[in-house]
Amino acid sequence: MVEIRNLSFQYASHTPVLRFPDIHLKEKERLLILGRSGVGKTTLLHLMAGLLTPKEGLVKIGDVDINTLSDRALDRFRGRHIGMVFQNNHALRSLTVLENIKARLFFSGKSMVDKDIETLLGQLQIGDCKNQKINELSVGQLQRLGIAMAFVHRPRLLLADEPTSSLDDLNCATVLQLLKQQAEKNKANLVVITHDKRIKSAFKNVITL
Ligand SMILES: Nc1ncnc2c1ncn2[C@@H]1O[C@H](COP(=O)(O)OP(=O)(O)OP(=O)(O)O)[C@@H](O)[C@H]1O
């Protein structure tokens, strides 16, 4: 469950106040957020992840008003309950695919047996690359690793920032399908922000900032 109410943010006193529409997502609901460049999509995603503190308003994930948490508790909450997929993958270049997944699990304080990790990698069609270093992966494989890293700790909220804009039509459709499948499997909310209009029809729930 995600609730956003009366949310606003300001980067600095001389910059405009960004205001965001109210959002209410029930369990497993998915949302696509569209908007032109500079309108505040990434800012909203970062507010939902607790990476930025709002000027005003509420961000509630499950039963938790995330802005009432201490910095430390918020870091722990994010590590355990939120997964993020970025346009450019944040995997550690010196590690292999498998080592990156294990590092992500370690930092979230959760565990998964090797067999289940391999199943996840297989579902994302990167099982054969598990011992490859990050710089040996294609763009599509790297994007799928980003999804694996966002889901491996079974978050209740998955936030994806432009997950498809650097992909061709085929990889775009595949990544979208995988995001939806994994969210469904984890009963997680999925929020995607993009200006990639190709994916609009894949979501029932769409808002434009
Ligand atoms: N660190 C910052 N300091 C000041 N202003 C910022 C900062 N980051 C972003 N902004 C401004 O805030 C506004 C919203 O930025 P944001 O990155 O959220 O937009 P966006 O919709 O995600 O854009 P894009 O689609 O181009 O990524 C923009 O006008 C941007 O210039």
From TrEMBL:
Q: Name one GO cellular component term.
A: plasma membrane
**UniProt xrefs under Pfam families:** ABC_tran
Domain ABC transporter: start-end pairs: 2-208
Q: GO molecular function of the protein, one example?
A: ATP hydrolysis activity
Cite the entry's keywords alphabetically.
ATP-binding, Nucleotide-binding
The record's annotation in InterPro entries points to: AAA+_ATPase, ABC_transporter-like_ATP-bd, ABC_transporter-like_CS, ABC_transpr_LolD-like, P-loop_NTPase
Q: Which residues form a coiled coil?
A: none
User: Which PANTHER family is this protein grouped with?
Assistant: IMPORT ATP-BINDING PROTEIN, TRANSPORTER, PUTATIVE-RELATED
Q: What is this protein called?
A: Putative ABC transport system ATP-binding protein
Source species: Pseudozobellia thermophila
Q: What taxonomic ancestry is recorded?
A: Bacteria, Pseudomonadati, Bacteroidota, Flavobacteriia, Flavobacteriales
